[in-house]
Amino acid sequence: MKLQQIMQDIRCAETLPDLEITRVTADSRQVTPGCLFLCLKGMRFDGHSAAAQAVKDGAAAVVCERDLGLPCQVLVEDTRKAYGRVCSNFYGRPSEKLKLIGITGTNGKTTITYLLKHILESAGTKVGLIGTIRNEIGGLELPAKNTTPDPAELHVLFMRMLQAGCEYVVMETSSHALEQGRLEGCHFAVGVFTNLTRDHLDYHGTMENYYLAKKKLFDLCDTAVLNLDDAYGRRLAKEVSCRVLTFSTRDDAADFTAKNISCSAQGSRFALVGHCAISRVQFPMPGEFAVSNAMAAATAALGLGLGLEETARGLRDCPGVMGRTEVLPTGTDYTVIRDYAHTPDGLEKILSAVRGFCAGRLVVLFGCPGNRDPGKRPQMAAAVAKYADYIVITSDNPRDEDPEKIIDDAMPGLAGFTGPCERISDRYSAISRALDIARAGDILILAGKGHEDYQVLGYGTIHFDEREVVLQLLEEKKKDRGLSE
Fold it and tell me: From 93's CA, which of 125, 151, 436, 462 has a CA 20 to 30 Å away?
């Protein structure tokens, strides 16, 4: 493709040469002869420092923000913003032929994408999905590296989805991706805001910066679907310029409201009410926060033009979401649930929901991630202490931090907890102990890992799937009991 076509709608400081470009990359390790190399500035590495070597390695041109003295340089104001548009142009602007739905917020993004995908597929359409657990093109599953991919990967996914006949793409849009301009060149039919609570402050610095990053999605949307139960959602409703639809689990001022909510270990029931119409919903995820996620997905579907009953029917026959309030098949007289909750608000939501229908003790195993905002560690512990009867504090993904130091940081949040608490930094051993603690009628929550099938330790990444771990441990304990008898 010609350089002029690739740089279409991007303001450049000079007249573009007549060059044929074979590929686009921002990774200096992937430079090949004839490619276009974009110099991106990151937190640890500035691509401008690799531009001269990229030319030596065969790059036909480099896109940069300052004069590097190279004969084949293209100067732009912001290379990150240019990168998204360059990738869109290079792959034929596939997103323009798709209806994009972006989901942003601190908690609930993954669940909402899966619920909405199911609703749309139940209505007879083919849907692509981009998110934390994996990427999906109809029934084809692909691994996901980031919640929102790099622009080159993103537009390849769009192209493949279009070729596969997808009409819609439902995707998680992270604050990092929005702040870094990864979604430049994309336009969304609907953007959904779930909530905003403390997370990623190691990157954004302040809650205001975090909010402003999320807000960027709604500059790219036709319709904003906003949570009226969240203070930041109410703020967005006043500040965005696109069409607004609101949802709530308690506020009649919303366009769509959940009424008569009833939750149990088997799931949730509620009435979906809006615009002088009502439809009853039952689906297999418990808790008011799960109902809020369902309302977000339903309101997005309604904003896309689906009917109320068609939307409610899609929710009614929807399965659960892997790693989100997922009941593991243990065959025990107690219940084991794994969930991805890894923020104070995420823990508050799942534990308050489960506390409401837990007949026995609520046993909670949790840890705090390493190399992430340490200020939220005692807040996470305090959220657990508020609802748990028995606590096992352990590791999440410690990365290269000392696991015991991470636990020490969290312990002040347990200061007022009067129940039993054990600290076991090795997560496998901690799960084994938690299974020994649980008895008939109890609910054991394994919080933090959810769908993840790995754990990041100081020496590297290991395979760690809690569904497998629990079943393996229970089988070992069963054999040990048999031997002892």
Answer: 125
Distance CA 336, CA 457 (A): 25
The pLDDT assigned to 484 comes to: 61
Q: 56: buried, middle or exposed (CB in 10 Å: 19+, 13-18, 0-12)? A: exposed
β pairing state of 61-64 and 36-38: parallel
Q: What whole-number distance in Å separates Cα of residue 338 and Cα of residue 326?
A: 5
Tens-place pLDDT, residues 39-52? 999 878 999 999 99
Q: State pLDDT tens for residues 158-209.
A: 999 999 999 999 999 988 888 888 898 899 999 999 999 877 777 778 989 9
Please give the torsion angle defined by the CA atoms of residues 26, 27, 33 and 36, in that order, rounded to the nearest 10 degrees. 0
AA letter at 104: T
pLDDT at 79 over 70: yes
Q: What is the pLDDT of residues 240-276, one digit of tens each?
A: 999 999 999 999 999 999 999 988 877 889 999 998 7
Structure tokens at 115: 């619920």
Contact between 180 and 94 under an 8 Å Cβ cutoff? The reply is no
- Three-class HEC string of 124-144: CCCEEEECCCCEEECCEEECC
Q: Residue with structure tokens 């997560």?
A: 427
Query: Which residue(s) pair with 259 in the sheet?
Result: 271
**Counting runs of H as helices and runs of E as strands, what totals does the chain give?**
16, 23
Q: Which residues lie closer than 8 Å to 370 by C-beta, 6 or more apart? A: 395, 396, 397, 398, 399, 400, 401, 403, 406, 456
Sequence letter at residue 13: A
- Distances from the Cα of 452 to the Cα of 132, 141, 185, 203, 465, angstroms: 9, 15, 30, 22, 6
Where residue 450 falls (left for φ over 0; alpha for ψ -120 to 50; beta otherwise) is left
Longest dimension (CA), the chain: 84
| DSSP strand pairing (460-463 vs 454-457) | antiparallel
| Separation of alpha carbons 204 and 59, rounded Å | 34
pLDDT tens by residue, 134-150: 899 978 888 887 778 88
Order the strands of the 135-137 sheet from edge to edge.
Answer: 140-142, 135-137, 127-130, 168-172, 99-104, 188-193, 221-227, 243-248, 256-264, 267-274, 277-283
- Nearest Cα neighbor of 466 from 326, 283, 286 is 326
Place of tokens 């790693």: 323
Using CA atoms, how far residue 211 sits from 5, 200, 204, in Å, is 35, 11, 9
Q: What span, in angstroms and rounded, lies between the C-alpha atoms of 454 and 465?
A: 6
Please tell me the predicted confidence (pLDDT) of residue 266: 76
d(CA 392, CA 420): 9
Axis-axis angle for helices 377-387, 403-410 (nearest 10): 60
Model confidence pLDDT, tens digit, residues 430-469: 999 999 999 999 999 999 999 899 999 999 999 999 999 9
